[in-house]
Structure formats: structure tokens, C-alpha cells
Amino acid sequence: SLQLLQPKTVPKRLRTSQKKPHEPQVPRNLIKEIFRHFVKMPVSRDAFKIVEKCSERYFKQLSDDLEAYTRHAGRKTVEAADLEVLMRRQGLVTDKMPLNVLIERYLPLEYRKLLIPVAVSGNKVIPCK
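and the corresponding C-alpha cells:
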């Protein structure tokens, strides 16, 4: 009966599975760099902490939405069309403001070249699909 009073040992595998999985976070420096690009004045630490929290929630929601659109389309890979649907639902992309116009307006040339197909000499289109 002494054995019954002994605490049971839980296998190590089960103990670690009870931990909440750690979600990756957007690097603070990246958030700070992006925010400083748009806000051309000093920002208090308290305000920046709120910006960080909002950014994390925004990117989490963005990822969840893109995942849902992709699954709904019966695919396993997020495509540009999913992002366009998301941006249309957010009101960023409209009939008067297509995605290509947003790309041309807000992204530097090196990113525009990657996202918008351009005809070049030799009957080639870049970027190749």
C-alpha cells in the first residue's frame, strides 16, 4: 500500500506538451523602423508599446485571414490573389485603386520589379512565374 501513496511520474514528453507553444513575433526593430518611417516625430515608450501590440495583433489577424482564404480556395499555398481579396475587403484595393497602383505608389522600384510583370527585350516577361 506504500506504493499507492508514491506520486506518479509523468513521462517527460507529456510534461513539455502542456506548455503553450511560443508564437514568433515581428522583430521590435522592424516595427520601430516602419513606424518611424511614417511618423516623423518622437514617440513615447508607452505609445510605442501600444503600437507593438497593435502590430502583433494586426499581423496575426492578417495571417489568419490569408490562411482562411487559401483553405476556402482548396489550396495549401497563399497566393497573390488571396492578398488582393484581403486588401479588397479592407477597402485598400478598389476598382478605382487596383493593387498594381498601390504597389507603384508605395513600394520602392526593386520591390515593384518583383511584383509587377514587365515586358523586356527578347520577348521575356519578368518576373517569371
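(Above: one complete record from the training split.) Residues 45-72 form the longest helix (28 residues).
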